[in-house]
Amino acid sequence: MPAVSKGDGMRGLAVFISDIRNCKSKEAEIKRINKELANIRSKFKGDKALDGYSKKKYVCKLLFIFLLGHDIDFGHMEAVNLLSSNKYTEKQIGYLFISVLVNSNSELIRLINNAIKNDLSSRNPTFMCLALHCIANVGSREMAEAFASEIPRILVAGDTMDSVKQSAALCLLRLYKTSPDLVLMGEWTSRVVHLLNDQHMGVVTAAISLITCLSQKNPDEFKTCVSLAVSRLSRIVSSASTDLQDYTYYFVPAPWLSCKLLRLLQCYPPPEDGAVKGRLVECLETILNKAQEPPKSKKVQHSNAKNAILFEAISLIIHYDSEPNLLVRACNQLGQFLQHRETNLRYLALESMCTLASSEFSHEAVKTHIETVINALKTERDVSVRQRAADLLYAMCDRSNAKQIVAEMLSYLETADYSIREEMVLKVAILAEKYAVDYSWYVDTILNLIRIAGDYVSEEVWYRVIQIVINRDDVQGYAAKTVFEALQAPACHENMVKVGGYILGEFGNLIAGDPRSSPLVQFNLLHSKFHLCSVPTRALLLSAYIKFINLFPETKATIQEVLRCDSQIRNSDVELQQRAVEYLKLSSIASTDVLATVLEEMPPFPERESSILAKLKKKKGPGAVSVPDLEDGKREGGELNGGGERGPDSAAMSASNASTPSPSADLLGMRSAAPMSAAPTSAGSLLVDVFSEAGPAAPSAAVNDDGFLSSAPPSEDPATLLSEADELLNKFVCKNNGVLFENQLLQIGIKSEYRQNLGRMYLFYGNKTSVQFASFTTTVSCPGELQSHILSILRATKPVEPVVEGGAQIQQVLNIECLTDFSEAPLLNIKFRYGGALQNLSLKLPVTINKFFQPTEMTSHDFFQRWKQLSQPQQEAQKIFKANHSMDTEVLKAKLLGLGTALLDDVDPNPENYVCAGVIQTKGQQVGCLLRLEPNGQAQMYRLTLRCSKDSVSLRLCELLAQQF
Amino acid sequence: MIKAILIFNNHGKPRLSKFYEHYNEDTEQQIIRETFHLVSKRDENVCNFLEGGMLIGGSDYRLIYRHYATLYFVFCVDSSESELGILDLIQVFVETLDKCFENVCELDLIFHVDKVHNILAEMVMGGMVLETNMNEIITQVDSQNKMEKSETFIFQSTRQDR
């Protein structure tokens, strides 16, 4: 007999649904629905009490209307009333309405909670299940507050029915997910773990989800589950297909539970106990063996169930990554699946192999499947499978097969689905760079990439190719030749024009010897693309033209002609017009020497992690990109790169070297690139001078000019500035960027970023005068024992330029690593000659321990628990001090956030107080810190208390912070 | 965790939607449309897994679906679930519906939305799998039906029932 006989439906409901289905148009449907809503509303509001049947019918109608996508804004109260009915039918429909329509913020929750409470204590298993379902579906915080202590009791009580236990387990899981702080497992832990031994497989099925989640959060407390899970798994795996009766699914014993057990084991490292491990290895071998046995049924369900277990077993083997024997078997098994006729299996095999490729034991074994994977990329009908194949190719790529893989990916790109093109482009670009043996291959690859999928080539990709060409002189000639050829194509992508313009502007001279690519030919070729390009590209081309004037004096007249024409010099776009005007002027006023200096070839870019990789990481989310051994050495620093990244365009084409006297520096590059405002302004005023005064003085502005010198301030006494700098240091405790130092000669700006125990600091030295600083040197030193505490600070990426021209700004990058906590600050010493006088400055660099904070969010309960744990007298540091600054709430909050900690709301019972929590990351250890700041507005005083797991940190932080408020 | 279970027909008409994470009504409808769009354009006999749409969380989530006659059954799950396992679960769900409704068809889902929800609730709770054993599920559904029968009185078909 069917469980639902068709005759007992509700006629009114059926009629309504039929009406809707017969509606010819959307309007008719809406009309019919509105009519029905009005009807139901009036019925609910009416005086006549509705019987259970009617209520149920109307609620069903509302559910149907809701499913069609219409808002339901009434009926909630009626549904809640149904909950307290003692008829199952009514109660059930009430719960259904609520679990579909009520969200966790509803103000009805309190009423619902009441009904649930009654049902939970009813001892009627059906009612209890309904109530538990409702909690699990709504799962609001109020519900957690009301029931978090009750549910574990139901779960482990001896007399609870199995079906109720199942529901209770999942209900608890839901509450744990919404409000982990309210679900305290403590005393229940061991009994919950032992549910893995429960006789009823359904209970185990539900409980394992709960245990897996709890194990992920508290692995130590739950680690006894490993041996229990192994023995349960072993019993299932070795059972005959009939042993488990109903839990045997198409001849496979308990496939779902097996998968879940294997997943649970993936939360832990391999078992330490030899016997347990032996048993587990045996299980895994049995599972692998079974895969080779002939199938017991031809049904797809049979093979699905069997393979579901197999794939989980393989995941576990990969997770352990310690049994070469099993890894090789796993790899062979996946290899078989790669050619399987079931698409699903091919998909999963490609996916699992991706993780396998990053294991050192199996990387080589995975590589043997390259032909199959390439074939999959070419022939699979399904885009999701092709995507997996592309991922796998990326993961298995190394120096030995890079050319083949990149070529295949490129040719696939021509037909690839639009949805995955951008990612493919990034991957090709990364592989090409990473495994490039000769850089001409790299250049070819990237240009091909632009040709094939120009629209999907992001800025990072073409910035990168330019960075690499600039930095490697062996490839510059080839690059110039290749872009020149690529630009011959009648239609070429704008990105190609950008790369072409940039490279010819820098290195066009390398191919100018050939009459087929003479300077004028090059210029005409570039200029033929000019009118089809967007404004930024045109701006870039204008810069290329001025570079041409320097490279090839014979093109000067032609180019000046172009610049002078109205479409340039009167262009409606400010940027283009400005460039045209300035370049024209520059080319006519400046002497060849000045031009040559201003338009000098770009200096090499500092080595840094590829920005493309950063982009791919961002796109895929952390961890999603498994690039084996990709720039391992650089990775730590690389993460920090994002903010400091500059594309070559913004890195100032003409301002080729920031230390050269480049009057147009701010106009081209610094606009977006210079994070400091000081230098550009002074450079800007200089520029005005150049053009307004014209005449003979102007070009010599860059050289030492007496007239300019006379207006310069008297030279600074070469005294050290330590005491003053201490104040400066305090200025930077709660912020990372700003002006570190300024006098009449020099301004030092600072911009820094920190992540974990690493930091990167950009120092910008701006010459405020119009005269060059000679013998400019900077040294950073770590006084005393600091050397062993922070840092490999001073891996300055490259020494600063020895000459800082008047009005120019140069940049220096410092990498910082915090080895252990410290209290001194490193020193920065700057020496230079200004007009013959030696200047000597010493400053403290604002590297303070709080920079390595990671904020930690925690609840009031956790906070005070940890606070109590840190109760040893030396762990606490306290200071009471007078307010030095405004006590305004927002200001204080901003400072506390700037400190790097998490500012915790609703933790301290006194809302006036501030509490913060964070972890200081050093290389060797992590130091947990809790902070409490109690302002007293009347007395204008503060009490600051710090508790840290390390004494010295408490003291240092207290010292630092007392200056801040 | 299962984030959502959606059933819609070949034209994208929703027949059941169950979300285990809260979205507002509009978003829910958009997710259904987006999912239909992703799934319906796929050929038969391609693989049953694909990355989730943007609304449901993108590539961190998988859509695992089966197409039966006029209906698509789609489960949206996170990475903690076994793809093939979920595929089996869909099969169990459909087989259970088939047993409960005797040759289930789209109309059964339309006219018995509440029953379908009840059956589903016996399998999945709060996004986690409660029970995979079909007989166990049917036993539960049966006992509920019995209770329901014993409570409801017989209606006359002449009754004014609107």
Summarize the structure.
By secondary structure, chain A is α+β, with helices and mostly antiparallel strands. Chain B is globular and about 45 Å long.
List keywords for this structure.
heterodimer; A: 965 residues; alpha+beta; six-stranded antiparallel beta sheet; 43 helices; 53% helix; 11% strand; globular; disordered N terminus; B: 162 residues; five-stranded antiparallel beta sheet; 5 helices; 7 strands
Report on the biggest sheet of chain B.
5 strands, antiparallel
Spatial strand sequence of the major β-sheet of chain B: 2-1-5-4-3
What sort of overall outline of chain B do the alpha carbons produce when their principal axes are compared?
globular
Per DSSP E runs of 2 or more residues, the count of β-strands of chain A stands at 15
Family (chain A): Belongs to the adaptor complexes large subunit family.
Region (Disordered) (chain A): 622-667
Binding site for a 1,2-diacyl-sn-glycero-3-phospho-(1D-myo-inositol-3,4,5-trisphosphate) (chain A): 11-12, 43, 53, 57-61
Biased composition (Low complexity) (chain A): 649-667
Structure description:
- The complex is a heterodimer of chains A (965) and B (162).
- Chain A is an alpha+beta fold and 965 residues long.
- In chain A, the strands form four sheets. In chain A, strands 10, 11, 12, 13, 14 and 15 form a six-stranded antiparallel β-sheet that branches. Chain A has a four-stranded antiparallel β-sheet with strand order 3-4-5-7, with helices on both faces.
- With 162 residues, chain B is of the alpha+beta class.
- Chain B has five helices and seven strands, in the order ββαβββαααββα.
- Chain B is globular and about 45 Å long.
- The relative contact order of chain B is 0.14.
